[in-house]
Write a structure and sequence with these properties.
Helix content: 40-55%
Distance between the termini: 45 Å
Strand content: 5-15%
Order of helices and strands: HHHHEEEEHHHHHEEHHHHEEEEHHHH
Number of helices: 17
Structural class: alpha+beta
Number of strands: 10
Largest sheet: 8 strands, antiparallel
């Protein structure tokens, strides 16, 4: 009988200890929700819209994005000339049409540094209109989702929200887990007027979508201010990101890929290779062909084989003469288009501080021909060379990670200096890029989008149910913070969890410390009020 009494006492002590730890976890789960619920619901709503950014843009900007399909597309330089004739400025990016009915997008910068994107019908060289750079609705959604409109420190808020979301999920799983009970809550009991209904709804939704929320919080961290930037530098410095082998094989400039567009996360630190100056330019000798004049001649000499016709031996000389005359006419026509573009560039100077290609560059049309010959996916962006040693750069980051591509061409010879794909990334970069691509709803097509859409809806439901549950539980005139256990030793396990999370994500750890200090202050104030009463 005495043994039974001792056993029951131990069981009661253990049960009491578990309940005290439960209250400690509940308290920090409450704090986490209090801090990040507004951010999480914001990220969920804007994230759901971001999943369908392509369709949104084609619908909202249909007059700019969609064109009637024609027979043959005009040369890119001719489209650029049409855009410059309407708006002026210098080219900083050319985006090839992604689909047969898509317009070409031409980025121009004026003398004051203002950037705009001009949309041109690629079949008719007709200017459809223009928007400021990043002026589409999808870019607005993207800026809203990243909190970029808040200011330069918005990514710090994202980092803290992501870290606290991780705490929310882990503590929420503990609160939901059955401790000594049979089964778990997998159905919703009660009625909407009762707190039990909202508690069960919150628990069931969290159990169903918690893993996805944890995944989204972790894969969103690469965009964060402190953790994301430091991991990116570390990964690149230890050959886990941008592979060192591709850096040392070519002389690299101080220009970065991020300066000419939106690179993949793993390529934020990537520098551009340098073009090799022709001997006559390096020595200041004979004046080379100017700008796009080289484009027409090189296209004629190098690519004439693509249009060669099969002729009978008896007519070879006659056909050769006709092809020669046709080639000269085409070269002169290309040179005229190039001359007008060069004149516009000379008139604008290095608009907005963007240096143009060197004298004798192969030109945009020849560069695009070379990129196409490499099999790059349509819809890629072309950044022209910046300065005499700059390069033509093509980048594309499609939904399929395996088809990500970055190609750099020597601006004078057209030689491929670097051709990098997803398979060339380091192991950490591959893992993070995969996570980012899934986070964006791109990696697995429609299924990926639908799962994340469900997750966004679940997150909204979690936030709403949490708010209603708290409102029904809170005391009149009070915040309703869950009580802290009397024995401080109960907090040790929870403290270990918070410290580990804080060490991995330092900015989040700092917010933990601040929250801990506030919690101590709140406790002392509550105890003082109780003593005074």
């Amino acid at each position: 009988m005495h043994a039974m009494t001792d056993g029951s006492g131990v069981a009661e002590a253990r049960q009491g200890s578990r309940w005290r730890f439960y209250r400690a976890v509940w308290r920090w789960h409450f704090y986490a929700g209090l801090l990040v619920l507004p951010f999480i619901i914001w990220l969920a709503v804007t994230g759901a819209a971001f999943l369908y950014q392509g369709a949104i843009d084609r619908s909202v900007h249909h007059d700019l994005k969609v064109v009637p399909v024609g027979d043959t597309r005009m040369p890119a330089q001719q489209l650029v000339a049409a855009a410059q004739q309407r708006y002026g400025g210098s080219l900083f990016v050319y985006i090839t049409p992604k689909r047969a009915d898509a317009s070409a997008e031409i980025g121009l910068v004026d003398a004051h540094g203002a950037r705009r994107v001009v949309y041109v019908d690629p079949y008719r060289a007709r200017v459809l209109g223009a928007l400021p750079e990043h002026g589409t609705l999808s870019w607005t959604i993207r800026r809203l989702h990243s909190l970029a409109l808040v200011g330069p420190y918005a990514r710090g808020l994202i980092e803290m929200a992501g870290g606290w979301a991780i705490v929310l999920v882990l503590t929420g799983v503990y609160l939901w887990w059955p401790r000594g009970r049979r089964g778990v809550v997998i159905s919703v009991r009660g009625k909407p007027k009762q707190r039990l209904f909202w508690r069960d709804l919150h628990a069931v939704t969290g159990a169903g979508g918690g893993a996805i929320l944890l995944f989204l919080a972790l894969t969103g961290m690469p965009w964060s201010w402190l953790w994301g930037a430091q991991v990116n530098r570390w990964a690149n410095g230890h050959d886990f990101g941008y592979p060192a082998g591709l850096r040392v094989q070519q002389p690299m400039s101080q220009q970065r890929l991020a300066d000419s567009g939106e690179p993949a996360w793993s390529l934020r630190q990537a520098r551009l290779p340098e073009s090799v100056l022709p001997a006559r330019l390096a020595e200041g000798g004979d004046e080379p062909l100017h700008g796009e004049h080289a484009n027409g001649l090189q296209l004629g000499n190098e690519y004439s084989g693509h249009t060669a016709r099969t002729v009978a031996p008896g007519h070879a000389d006659h056909e050769e003469h006709e092809e020669h005359e046709e080639h000269i006419a085409q070269s002169e026509q290309s040179a005229q288009h190039a001359h007008s573009a060069d004149s516009a560039h000379a008139a604008n100077g290095d608009a907005g501080g963007v240096a143009g290609p060197g004298r004798g560059a192969i030109g945009l049309d020849a560069a695009i021909a070379r990129f196409d010959a490499r099999g790059i996916l349509p819809g890629y962006s072309v950044a022209p060379p910046r300065g005499a040693t700059g390069v033509y750069t093509a980048t594309v980051y499609p939904a399929d990670l395996q088809r990500q591509r970055v190609i750099h061409l020597d601006q004078y010879s057209g030689t491929v200096l670097l051709d990098m794909r997803y398979r060339d990334y380091g192991p950490l970069a591959k893992l993070l890029e995969w996570g980012i691509n899934v986070h964006l709803g791109q990696q697995y097509g429609t299924a990926n989008q639908l799962i994340l859409l469900f997750a966004c809806l679940a997150i909204v439901l979690l936030c709403v149910s949490a708010a209603v549950m708290w409102w029904k539980r809170r005391p009149s005139g009070g915040l309703g913070v869950p009580p802290l256990p009397a024995d401080p030793r109960t907090l040790r396990g929870l403290l270990v969890l918070l410290v580990l999370c804080g060490l991995i994500f330092p900015l989040v750890g700092l917010s933990f410390v601040l929250m801990w200090v506030l919690d101590r202050y709140w406790m002392q104030r509550t105890q003082a009020d109780a003593a005074a009463g």
